[in-house]
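Data availability (excerpt). The following record was deposited with the supplementary files.
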Amino acid sequence: MVRGRRPPLGFGERVSTVRVPPVLRGAVGGVRELSMPGATVSEVLASLYAVHPEVRAQLVGNDGELHRYVNIYVNDEDVRLLGWLDTPVAESDTVLILPAMAGGATLPR
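Predicted structure:
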């Protein structure tokens, strides 16, 4: 389910589920999952950015590349070990975007 604007056409008929972690949900209207078209991870991300440009600002640097702390999985497989952004995505696949969290506080003893 996509809320708001529709994904761009031209990425074929494949529509995958994109799971949105809590840290990014504010940029997608609070939903946990979205359906996005695309035959590759790159195309799915392009569809996501077209509908929710705020997500791009959180995941992509000024150089146009994903931040190195962003982890992407297709069906629990790290795309860095597959074909990176060229990893194929099928209709039944789930794409999970996980920006790594850092920081925190030391608890008193």
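Summary of structural features: The chain has three helices and five strands.
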